[in-house]
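Note on ligand handling. Small-molecule inputs were canonicalized before submission; formal charges were left as drawn, and no protonation-state enumeration was performed. Where a ligand contained multiple stereocentres, the stereochemistry in the source SMILES was retained. For zinc ion, this procedure yielded the string shown in the input block below.
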Amino acid sequence: MTNNLRVKSSKFIDETYKISFKFNNKTYYGYKGDTLASALLANNIHLVGRSFKYHRPRGIMTAGSEEPNAIVQLHKNTSRTEPNVRATEIEIYEGLEASSQNCWPSVNFDLGGINNFLSPVLPAGFYYKTFMWPASFWEKYEYFIRKSAGLGKSPTEPDPDIYEHKYIHCDVLIIGAGISGIVAAKTSAKNGFKTLLVDEKPHLGGSTIYQNSEHFKINNQISSSWLEKEINEIKKIDNLEIKTRTSVAAFHGYNFLLARENLTDHLPLHQRNEKVRHRLLKIRAKKVISATGSLERPLVFDNNDRPGILLSSAIEKYSNLFGVACGQKNVLFTNNDSAYETAISLFQKGINVEAIIDNREEVDSKLVKEIEKNNIKIYKGYTVVNTFGYKKINKISIMQLSKDGQKVVGSKISIDCDCLGMSGGWTPAVHLFTQSGGKLKFRDDDQVFIPNKYPSDQISIGSCNGEFTLDEILTGISKKLKDFLNIKKTDYENLEIQSHFNKTKRNIWLLPSDKIIGKTKPFVDYQNDTTAKDIKLALREGFRSIEHVKRYTTTGMGTDQGKLGNMHALGIISETAGSRMGELGTTTFRPPYTPLTFGTIVGRNVGEYFDVFRKTPIHDWHVENKAKFENVGQWKRAWFYPKENESMHEAVQRESKAARDSAGILDASTLGKIDIQGTDASEFLNRVYTNAWSKLAIGKCRYGLMLNEDGMVYDDGVTTRLDENHYIMTTTTGGAATVLGKLEDYLQTEWPELDVYLTSVTDHYATISVCGPNSKKIVSKVIPEIDLSDEKFPHMSFKNAKIDKVKCRVMRISFTGEQSYEINVQANYGKSVWDKCMQAGKEFNITPYGTETMHLLRAEKGFIIVGQDTDATMTPIDLQMDWIISKKKYDFIGKRSLYRSDTIREDRKQLIGLVTENPKEVLEEGAQIVADANKSPVEMLGHITSSYYSPNLEKSIALGVVKGGKNMIGRKLIIPMENKQIKVTVTDPVFLDKENKRLNA
Amino acid sequence: MFVIHCPYCGKREQSEFKAGGEAHIVRPKQPTELSDDQWAEYLFMRKNIKGVQFERWVHAHGCRKWFNMVRDTSNDEIKAIYKMGEKPPRKL
Ligand SMILES: [Zn+2]
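Structure output:
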């Protein structure tokens, strides 16, 4: 490009450091210190993207994080690609590659632009109204919409960057390092407060730092020079930490804030390796000072969105900070004095200003007079009625406003221009304040919402508090800080301030046009293409609440959350509906203030660190023996142990058969274990389990079922009486923590009189279960000191013993239906005891089995798994486990609920067994159970909860729940599958050894 | 995220705690003597008010103790914290 729009050098730009970058595959140059936006503007590029709905050409509008239009995709088709990056924020670096998004096939020729001509038929709510019908067409519409619209492309490869989280505790957090923030930071830190100052920009000083006008002075120095000295001073203070490129994303209650510190995005790609890219700061501050500044408002008039139309303050920033002229024939359009500031600074840099269009009829501040002195034409009491130029503005037409500002009068005047700056006054950036729960009030004078009630120890200062001029900001700041920080003195007591800014403003939310509104496009939300017309339509259609209008018109719902247009939307609603702004309120500002990448949110919790996992003391053995694992809660449990080439089915069949034919061994260490002690331990168990415990002898075990107070099964497990006042309870693997929590709850809040102590000992013991007809022989080899005879050590009993001086607890309990011994030993001896069992079992072909075989074996025996065969709607009666409900006990958790009108219904879903007509056919867990699949509508009777092929019974078995199933034994039912109907017969849920011969053998 | 003053441990982050619903709902001493409606009242009905609410909390990842909290649900202001078995403060 030959068009170089660099003007006088700026100290923020290093012209000796040239950087090349690519935009839409073309190479350009900029300087260190440039943002992508400033570098593009210096190359005379305004057209950056297309709008979302109408695909209108759009350019750079702002110079900050509020940018709605200039959003780009970085490093397309690489693992580092990122959509929706604001060109106004990203600093250029060697190798930067950016491309326009939301245009296809290219930004200069965009097929979707047809929507612009179709716009009369694309009003607010169009997508809701049209594409919802007929429903079956949605997929086709979606394809079309997604291809031609959409905001960028998400990466498809893993993110190569590193992210981390960090906690910060400070006395005072200051958000925003503009003039107010700098003053606050210095005051806070010099008074001994541990202070943190953050700003989203790479430099300190906000907009004052590039303010070079003689019209704004502090102690007789130009405001920027004065501020520069302050900044140099605060950099030397020890207890002040300064973080730039750090954007506060969220301000939660109790002064808890999240901020994203950007560490590498401005570096060339090759310098980023091994470095942390973003750091999510979790800040807990005793006090928060918001100095977040304000955002300039656009003006709403016909075709106010063309490339080359910018905020007036952005034009000033590009010229003063980046040394870039946005145009050579600039026109400014304003309703207040701000545009005159811009005009003066452009003028100083030798950039041509053609004219200023001012809504106000009478203006005579010093700023205005200086413009007049320099022979720049000011059209007072005028408004822009239209703009021209498709890919870049080339002309505007203006007309005079009527006295009441509702109409335009007189004849049209045309003015040629290549850049139009607009200034509709300022909106305090109260987003973070309201996120924290702060309440706003509306100030009628200049039509702004400002902080009113603070929900925590915080204040807002400067322009985010509605103090827009230099004198307003600085005169009150000293007292404010003294009151807030409870200090006696500041360095800013008697500042001499010179500020030539006249505060008068003529606020017209929707500027009038010579055309009827239906023929105009006055944009309110640029990113989502919402016009004033759409908002009026929503009101005509009956929407009143701002939240509803927002969703119907999508105004404020883009990635910029409507930072520019929300106030105009409110204003137009207020004017059209005749309601007061203050009463309308604002829409809710939600975190994050600016978008965060997922990497930042996730931090280091990726890959193997995604979640913590727990391993048993025998885990390494399972790994060595090629076990496949499954996740149970946070535990990694051995699932099955495939031998060479074995499928899962083959492995499980082999393991299941071995356990019943000879011996199997299971690592049951993950079972929850709760140690219960105290003189009321038995009474406590009576209250928490459905069955009775007082008469359980020492050295005996009992199975217990625990209910919720609503009568539904909650957990189960075997509890052993170790001593008079000492029990050990086992829970399901997944339920351990919640069961302990529930028991503690009752103990502390309902029954504090009970003398009972609960301790989780899950991790303290390794639990090894040896089962099968040869288990007795194996265990007697491992623990010879115990007499394992059925008379001395029958089913459901317990003994303390020693294995080579190591204490162990042995229970004869069974979850498989085989005679089986559970050895509990201190966790660090688990592996050696496991090895001993394997050694002792060698001659019996002892076979390690995993959770899948355990599930199969228990299903053969009809034992339930809580959470698989039950959900939160099954009572013990539904499970056909009436036998476990004590009739004698006066009360236990859930007892009263077992005879509520709902729980005694005969047609509740009840647990039953199912066998298939074809014994080889295995049913699918979760499949529906019906009586008649041909009746319409088909009545769903229930579903299958567990299903296996049993190698021991040589047939398919299943458990399921069926309405009124208890009385349906022998009934033929149907399992309807996609292309077949499977015939099944209802049976008792116990398939194997109903008489418990194997258990007691 | 709140900062909660555990009556046993002191100030801690909210992430260490779990909320346990409305406070001062006493489990009936003789559930078997209640009608279905009376039992349902205890079992299911909760006030869930916008404003000052009495709640149970537990320091789940700390001392595991339950305690009571008075919280304004409209702005999350914690007005009082007191131990189980203690009466709520008169002045809030
Ligand atoms: Zn505690």
